[in-house]
Design goal:
- Helix content is about 45%, strand content about 10%.
- Mean pLDDT is about 90; it is low at about 495-500.
- The chain has helices at about 125-135, 150-155, 175-185, 185-200, 215-225, 240-250, 270-280, 310-320, 375-380, 385-395, 400-405, 415-420, 425-490, 505-535, 540-565, 575-600, 605-625, 645-665, 670-694, and strands at about 30, 35-40, 50, 55-60, 65, 75, 80-90, 100-105, 160-165, 205-210, 230-235, 265-270, 290-295, 300-305, 330, 340, 355.
- It folds into five domains: about 30-355, 3-Layer(aba) Sandwich (Rossmann fold); about 375-415, no CATH class; about 450-495 and about 505-560; about 575-625; about 645-694.
- It is built from 19 helices and 17 strands.
- It has about 700 residues and is α/β, with parallel strands linked by helices.
- Strand 15 (about 330) and strand 16 form a beta hairpin.
- It starts with about 25 loop residues before the first strand and ends with a helix.
- Its main location: membrane.
- It is a peripheral membrane protein.
């Protein structure tokens, strides 16, 4: 490992480590609490949705809340017991706010639900394995808590060529990952192998700071001959930052505003790898985590494996908390952690440390002084930003300048504030500015959405008005045509003349009679429509149109009556009743024959029915001839026998195509589900093509 080249990143600091407080003893199991509080939102993304009810008994590992979107994970019961409450409960946040949660009263049995371990995970399709990780409720255990399955599925256009395992744990006081690597190195390596099989990277790199010699030795022994690169990094804060670790191990820089996946790399924390091992090989969902309990206000600093939802006060009491000595309570480390207002909040998936310092251990910062423009903050910034300029822009709420100076590349590590001689709380300014910008973006998004809705509504109203105007013009044209027909009817020839002597005139009168019937019908329809509109919206224009259409209808009726009187009398239909009766009889005989064939009647009965059907067909032909209508052509075709396999294959193809289209229309559809649907469609098309070519 000494021959392996390592790079460096800009800035960084070397604060006192204080890790010896908690890393001298093995991981202890925390006592089983009587009551667990499980917030529904424990990660970045949409909170889970409860699927249990108050009073319902649950088992350890049972799903109690389902994922509510693509960027979401389910929540599981950390122990067996009864759901006693669903609603607002304390949440580990600096504001002390309440958040939706599920409360479970433990029954003391800690009884597991049935588990589904998978020893041969290489036999699973990648999307199935990915879904197994997602359903285990795993989110990142070392950072902001991004859902792991989403991170693994978020492939860039290029392939992931490097998998990076983050064991740096650079934050002072925190030793949870250190003890985990020492005591569970075999499980960690197995989890890395699962990720490597799923992602298929070209190389796997594991980064650990050199202040963890025991963890390094344990991992070396567990790795054996595996082709994973173990890289020992010089101790420097914040080497555990995702972008900083990428640069340390590979020399490549993640572009501004980008992610490691943009340069073909993927980072996972060591705790997340162990959770993946537990989920796949043991079938255990994420219901507990390793958490560091440290600070001089504790009699027994240590690392414990605690159930999610355990009240923080109970964990600190287990470590011997002296509340009189505790100056404040910090969740996380002293650099990136935040102060909790009370001990009632529960442990969540992202809670890797509870720090209870005394006032002398972590004294409050002195009052801030004006910036002296020394530039120490810029020298310490690991993201190569200009903290001094960002500070001034944040004070002036100059959001465009903040964006131009890459505010959102700030990882809020606190290095700038640590070295500031004026004791300026720079990170607080940056966090506030980020929140302001996000809020403004949301407002702009809502305003843009409202504008689009307004424009679409105006367009719909415009089209509706154009349609109404077109209908008014159509009614006016119909009224004009009716008037013209009335005028034409006055010029009809003398109806007293013998029609036999005027054969062409008789044919013309019949054609004109047909045309006038159509015009009269259209005028009547237009009148009824106009009357309905008048009843709904009475306006002078509509009243005038209705009056005009009524006159047009009367004129059309008179014109039709005049032409009808002049036309030759219609030849009475002959044998209409016999023709109708013959058609009905034929239909009855055909139905009787089909029923008999379906019921499996004997040949004698079927022969009799077929003769009756033939007789009915001859009777229909005779009736058609008597009515001067052409006899229908009787065409019999032999149907090909039904190919049941072809029908089944076509049905499967139709269902596969419909399911894929439904998923493609759903913006929240999971990529694994889409890939599975595409695979199913391709397989259905292949099977149908093979069958048709036989």
């Amino acid at each position: 490992m000494s021959d392996v080249k390592l790079w460096d990143f800009h800035g960084g600091i070397h604060p006192p480590e204080h890790k010896a407080l908690s890393n001298r003893t093995p991981i202890q199991p925390a006592p089983l609490p009587a009551r667990l509080i499980l917030p529904l939102g424990q990660h970045i993304g949409a909170p889970a949705q409860p699927i249990v009810a108050v009073g319902e008994r649950v088992l350890k590992g049972q799903t109690i809340a389902a994922a509510s979107g693509r960027v979401s994970v389910p929540l599981h019961a950390p122990t067996s017991g009864t759901v006693s409450f669903i609603g607002p409960q304390p949440y580990p946040h600096v504001s002390g706010m309440l958040a939706p949660a599920i409360v479970i009263d433990s029954d003391g049995l800690d009884a597991w639900a049935p588990l589904a371990p998978c020893a041969d995970y290489r036999g699973l399709a990648p999307e199935v394995l990915l879904e197994k990780i997602r359903q285990a409720g795993i989110s990142g255990l070392g950072g902001a808590g991004f859902p792991t399955a989403v991170k693994l599925a978020a492939r860039p256009q290029g392939k992931i060529h490097t998998l990076i395992i983050n064991g740096a744990e650079c934050e002072p006081y925190i030793t949870a990952d250190d003890r985990l690597m020492r005591e569970r190195a075999a499980e960690l390596v197995a989890g890395i192998e699962i990720l490597a099989w799923l992602i298929q990277p070209e190389q796997v790199l594991i980064g650990i700071e050199d202040n963890k010699p025991e963890a390094i030795a344990a991992l070396q022994a567990a790795l054996g001959e595996r082709p994973f690169g173990l890289r020992v990094l010089p101790t420097k804060y914040p080497s555990g930052g995702e972008k900083q670790l990428v640069e340390l191990l590979t020399g490549q820089q993640v572009p501004s505003g980008g992610l490691p996946t943009d340069v073909g790399m993927l980072c996972q924390n060591v705790g997340t790898c162990v959770a993946i091992h537990d989920a796949v090989l043991q079938g255990r969902p994420l219901v507990s985590r390793i958490v560091t309990l440290t600070g001089e206000a504790l009699a027994r600093p240590m690392n414990v494996e605690a159930l999610l939802g355990t009240p923080i006060g109970e964990l600190l009491a287990f470590a011997g908390l002296d509340e009189a000595r505790m100056d404040r309570l910090i969740m996380g480390g002293p650099m990136m952690g935040f102060t909790l207002p009370s001990l009632e909040a529960p442990l969540i998936k992202t809670g890797n440390c509870l720090l209870a310092p005394t006032r002398s251990e972590l004294p409050p910062p002195p009052p801030p002084l004006p910036c002296i423009r020394c530039g120490a903050c810029a020298d310490a910034c690991p993201a190569s930003l200009l903290p001094q300029q960002l500070h001034f822009f944040a004070l002036g709420q100059e959001h465009e300048q903040l964006r131009a100076h890459n505010l959102f590349d700030c990882i809020e590590c606190g290095a700038c504030a640590y070295v500031c001689p004026s004791s300026l709380p720079l990170v607080q300014y940056y966090r506030a500015a980020k929140a302001e910008i996000r809020e403004l973006e949301q407002k702009q998004h809502k305003a843009e959405h409202s504008r689009r809705r307004f424009e679409l509504r105006q367009e719909r109203l415009r089209k509706a008005e154009e349609q109404k105007e077109a209908e008014r013009q159509a009614r006016a044209e119909q009224a004009a045509r009716a008037k013209a027909l009335q005028t034409e009817s006055a010029a009809l020839p003398d109806r007293t003349a013998p029609l036999a002597a005027q054969p062409s005139l008789a044919a013309g009168l019949l054609e004109q009679q047909k045309k006038l019937r159509i015009e009269a019908s259209m005028a009547q329809i237009a009148l009824k429509k106009a009357e309905k509109q008048l009843a709904a919206h009475a306006t002078p224009e509509l009243e005038a149109q209705v009056a005009e259409l009524r006159a047009a209808v009367e004129a059309a009726k008179k014109a039709l009556e005049a032409v009808t009187a002049a036309a030759p009398p219609a030849v009475p239909a002959s044998n209409d009743a016999a023709l109708k009766k013959a058609k009905i009889e034929l239909a009855i005989k055909r139905t009787e024959l089909k029923k008999a064939e379906k019921a499996g009647a004997d040949d004698a009965e079927l022969t009799c029915l077929r003769e009756a059907l033939a007789s009915a067909e001859r009777a229909l032909h005779a009736a058609e001839e008597a009515s001067d209508k052409p006899a229908p052509q009787l065409i019999r075709t032999d149907k090909r026998p039904v190919d049941e396999k072809l029908r089944t294959l076509k049905t499967e193809l139709a269902f596969a195509r419909a399911d894929l289209r439904k998923l493609e229309r759903d913006e929240a559809a999971d990529p694994p589900a889409l890939e599975s649907a595409r695979t199913r469609l391709a397989e259905a098309e292949r099977k149908l093509a093979e069958h048709q070519s036989e």
